């Protein structure tokens, strides 16, 4: 996604966001028995005279969330490149180093027995390069409770926690975000900048803002002031229902400028229910790389503007490939739903159950065609990142956690496991065993010998390297025996495997 000032996601110390709603009765509730609940006081129609009564009911169910994290950091040698670089051991040692990290955010209780909803990034180390050792939920009165992670979903940026006590908790419920209209009043409650319970008000600026290319990058936009730390907090309508979950802001400074985004309740509520039940979140997947149909592209193809998405490439063996979809096709309809900028192909397919057979309509060579496709299961975010790494048309960053170690320090290579998805990307058989080069240090001997990203290392010094640890072991043994080089067997797509000697550094 491209914005003039950039989309600021709420990470670590929180992030500006907004909230959800689904259509249930209003107000923070205390379950005194199965039928009892606090009656809600709704401000008069039109511009409210005050938000005080509504806030007093809702605020007890909005909580602050903090975490204590153990985050792995790259082990850099401050003496690298000097005569002292090996003075304190080989390259400063290859053992990983850690630092303690923290995050602050917001959340809200959705049941009397203590289920709490928040953003996934509030309770997950950045880049997934670490572990969360402790999660604490703080009530508005300052009472703290240790929280247990029930489930999380990175694709939708949602997480569910559980806290416990003898008495029932006050809670709020989701409303129906589909009933929200531009201009409706909303209030956001959260923990901006760690200040504690803070209430802001505003209106809905847009009920459907597509901000990105992801399957769930659809938001409610609001001008209610939200800042870092509001992440995971609720956005309420005037009935006291949660219609959104604050998630991000658009800002040149990192502070609120009146453009905030919330995950709609329509999207969030079903996912939260699944996470509470401990179910795996399964989404549909076609296996295509797509881009919007621009004005120039529509004119060149003779198509209507703002309709459809262009297929740049098709993943071998994926659902789209099996159905005969080709690069250059323009997909205009999925299961009877038109593909538009507000209703993207990714969104439509992600919300179809894997295994479902659906019709897909597309344009090819100027003619409209119809194909039937059995929807596949969307891989995890980590698997998708690995697939994209070897997309010939993309140059993404190397994933976190691939730096360092004997291979990185001594060969100047960053390698990852050879997964089935990467095998398909590289066009190698399922029997191929090895590790894949993710990046090459341009100053290394490996770079001088022509090794490049996407090459598969089949063996080192005649020992098979079916895993990263196996390659690490061979390199370490070579160093211990005083060798100055390692003989690698390298396979490149479409070429026979060759042996390449690479000097150690």
From TrEMBL:
Biological-process GO terms, alphabetical: proteolysis
Cellular-component GO terms for this entry: periplasmic space
GO MF annotations in UniProt: serine-type endopeptidase activity
Claim: Nucleotide-binding is one of the keywords in the record: no
List of residues binding substrate: 121, 157, 229-231
Domain PDZ: 282-348, 415-493
Compartments reported by the entry: Periplasm
Signal peptide stretch: 1-21
Keywords, sorted A to Z: Hydrolase, Periplasm, Protease, Repeat, Serine protease, Signal, Stress response
Enzyme class: hydrolase
Catalytic activity, reaction form: Acts on substrates that are at least partially unfolded. The cleavage site P1 residue is normally between a pair of hydrophobic residues, such as Val-|-Val
Enzyme Commission designation: 3.4.21.107
NCBIfam families from the UniProt entry: degP_htrA_DO
Name listed for the protein in its UniProt record: Probable periplasmic serine endoprotease DegP-like
Organism field: Pelagerythrobacter aerophilus
């Amino acid at each position: 996604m491209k914005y003039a000032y950039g989309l600021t996601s709420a990470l670590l110390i929180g992030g500006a966001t907004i909230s959800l709603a689904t259509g249930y009765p209003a107000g923070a509730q205390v379950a005194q028995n199965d039928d009892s609940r606090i009656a809600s006081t709704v401000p008069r129609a039109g511009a409210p005279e005050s938000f005080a009564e509504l806030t007093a009911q809702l605020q007890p169910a909005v909580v602050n969330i903090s975490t204590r994290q153990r985050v792995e950091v790259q082990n850099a040698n401050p003496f690298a490149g000097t005569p002292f670089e090996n003075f304190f051991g080989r390259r400063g040692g290859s053992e990983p180093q850690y630092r303690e990290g923290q995050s602050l955010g917001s959340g809200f209780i959705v049941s009397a027995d203590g289920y709490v909803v928040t953003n996934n990034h509030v309770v997950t180390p950045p880049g997934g390069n670490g572990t969360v050792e402790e999660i604490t939920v703080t009530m508005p009165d300052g009472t703290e409770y240790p929280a247990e992670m029930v489930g999380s979903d990175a694709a939708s940026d949602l997480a569910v926690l559980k806290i416990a006590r003898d008495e029932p908790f006050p809670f709020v419920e989701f409303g129906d975000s589909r009933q929200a209209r531009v201009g409706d009043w909303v209030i956001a409650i959260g923990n901006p900048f760690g200040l504690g319970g803070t209430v802001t008000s505003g209106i809905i600026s847009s009920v459907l803002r597509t901000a990105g290319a992801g399957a769930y990058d659809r938001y409610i936009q609001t001008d209610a002031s939200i800042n870092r730390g509001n992440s995971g907090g609720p956005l309420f309508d005037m009935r006291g229902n949660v219609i959104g979950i604050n998630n991000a802001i658009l800002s040149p400074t990192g502070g609120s400028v009146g453009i905030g985004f919330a995950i709609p309740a329509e999207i969030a509520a079903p996912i939260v229910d699944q996470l509470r039940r401990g179910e795996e979140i399964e989404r549909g997947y076609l296996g295509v790389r797509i881009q919007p149909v621009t004005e120039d592209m529509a004119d060149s193809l003779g198509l209507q503007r703002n309709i459809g998405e262009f297929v740049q490439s098709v993943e071998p063996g994926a659902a789209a490939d099996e159905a005969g979809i080709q690069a250059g096709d323009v997909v205009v309809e999925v299961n009877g739903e038109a593909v538009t900028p507000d209703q993207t192909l990714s969104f439509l397919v992600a919300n179809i159950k894997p295994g479902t057979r659906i019709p897909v309509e597309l344009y090819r060579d100027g003619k409209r065609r119809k194909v039937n496709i059995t929807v596949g299961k969307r891989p995890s975010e980590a698997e998708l990142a690995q697939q994209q790494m070897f997309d010939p048309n993309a140059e993404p960053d190397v994933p976190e956690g691939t730096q360092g170690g004997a291979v990185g320090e001594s060969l100047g290579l960053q390698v990852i496991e050879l997964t089935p998805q990467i095998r398909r990307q590289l066009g190698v058989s399922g029997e191929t065993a090895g590790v894949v080069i993710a990046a090459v240090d341009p100053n290394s001997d490996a770079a001088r010998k022509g090794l490049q990203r996407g090459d598969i290392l089949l063996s080192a010094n005649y020992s098979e390297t079916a895993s990263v640890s196996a390659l690490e072991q061979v390199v370490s043994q070579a160093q211990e025996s005083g060798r100055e080089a390692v003989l690698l067997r390298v396979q490149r797509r479409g070429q026979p495997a060759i042996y390449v000697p690479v000097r150690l550094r």
